[in-house]
Amino acid sequence: MTLWMGAAGAALFVLVFLVDGGSRPDYSPVRHPVSALALGRRGWIQTANFIVAGTAITVASLELVVAGPGVLIGVVLTVFGLSLVASGVFPMDPMLGYPPGAPTGIPEQHSTAHRRHDLAGAVVFLSLPVAAAAGAFTLPGMAWRVVSGGVALALFIGFGWFGRAWEQTSPRLGLIQRAVIVTGWGWLAALFTWLALRSG
């Protein structure tokens, strides 16, 4: 049951930010990061998305620690899930013109909540490729090992690409981040689903 929770949490996280971001006035999914959805009048939706998805993934990951297929991948995904929760507890500062009236660029000074959000986000985007890399060595079956290795490589490259886009305030910042998230969270949802089916 908990593995299904993890699969649902990962899949619904993506679905919620895609629908909310695509329907929100003044918000650009191409330009703005997913975390910016936690700002403004509808910000509670993305805040809840972070916390609910992170909690579901954490619970499922703890089952991996206890029941396998590997303690390492379970521990890393537990850290990932908890960091996702923290990303919801500590929102980013308004910037990049969102919400309306926010600075058009990225301010040099940040609030304590934003700095904590940045730290949690860094752990999120680093722990997931580490988990995929661990899966390349510990998951049963050659297919899952090959896929996990490929996903790990793609996520490491994507995280670096997103970091450069952030530094350059790229107009495609949000699009780049979404490509990374869909890849990583898609792998995670598929993994939990496969493990749930395998456990019968």
Summarize the structure in short.
The protein has 200 residues and is mostly helical.
Question: How would you portray this structure in words?
Answer:
This is DUF998 domain-containing protein. Keywords: Membrane, Transmembrane, Transmembrane helix. The chain crosses the membrane at residues 45-64, 71-90, 119-139, 146-163, 175-197. It holds the Pfam family DUF998. The chain has six helices and no strands. The model has no long low-confidence stretch (mean pLDDT 95). The protein has 200 residues and is mainly α. The termini are close together. Helix 4 runs antiparallel to helix 5 and helix 5 packs antiparallel against helix 6 (173-199). The longest helix is centred in the middle third of the chain and has 27 residues, at 112-138. The protein has a single domain (2-199), classed as Rhopdopsin 7-helix transmembrane proteins (Up-down Bundle). It has helices at 2-23, 43-67, 71-89, 112-138, 142-167, 173-199.
